[in-house]
Known about the structure:
- This protein has helices at about 5, 15-25, 30-35, 40-60, 65-70, 70-100, 100-125, 130-155, 160-190, 200-205, 210-230, 235, 245-265, 270-275, 280-290, 295-315.
- α8 (about 130-155) packs antiparallel against α16 (about 295-315) and α9 (about 160-190) packs across α10.
- It has one domain (about 15-315).
- By secondary structure, it is mostly helical.
- The protein is globular and about 50 Å long.
Amino acid sequence: MTGPASARRVPTPAGGLAAVVVAAAVWGTTGTATHFAPGVPAFVFGAVTFGIGGLVLAAVAGRGTLRAVAERRTRGWALLGAGALVVYAVAFYAALADAGVALGTTIAIGSSPVFAGLVEWVSDRRPVTGRWIVATLVSVAGMVVVTLARSEHDGGGGALALGIASALLAGLTYALYSWAVARGLHAAAGAVSVPGGPGVEAVAAGLPNGRGLVGAVFGIAAVPLVVLVVLAGAPYLGEGGNWPVFLYLALVPTVLGHSLYAVGLRSVGASVATLVSLLEPVVAAVLAVLVVGEHLGATGWVGIALVVAGLAVLAVPGRRLR
């Protein structure tokens, strides 16, 4: 039986790759965009961005969102993912404000795979691999180098330390969000035995697919975030000059970025998509220097390169290191 979803055209590999490139590029503009709304607290950026963006993603997913909430196998994972996303929304923007766009983005992105491996090791008893250990060591070294470069130029202090802590919290909560979504999809797919992969199995059984589960996570997370910004961020909502930035962050990096990334995954492998998405911290760093006026220096760029290299170790297919 062919419906609108099944008749949807699958993009070519080149088209899918282009979609991932654009997604990573727009994600990299997030920190620089906040520069054009000075004085807005980090929690307001996070609440508005993921509040509006979350509601849009939930609406786009349609009935899949409702199925993910109603189905007991996925409801708990959706709630866990939403809780992690709420914390991530605030922590990420706090990192950008206190540690700077380049450093905050680099640490948040670089630490997330490290935390993801630890979460799987603790919860799923999945042993860490040599590849993960090498990637972790290289990424951590890069984060230390770029942090030292930033502190040497601007000085240390409580704000920088708080920003680094916020970036690490963002990396941890994003890893938890990703793990919860993966476990939710596994729970939905494991409920039936129809061949064709997790997405096909879930749809065949009337269970939520990946789009519906992500829509549910973002939709649930949007509720407390919208309440937060209405109660505590109302003065900033009343300033018309902030809304172009709010709408850009909600609709471009959040809605468009996640949608394009999902489109890309339909025709390119996850490892390729992950590798291409390493463009994000590079774009963030370049814009931070050219637009925001941050200073990295040669040492800072070396640190960012190490973080990207560490993530690439995880993304590039190959045999596991022993």
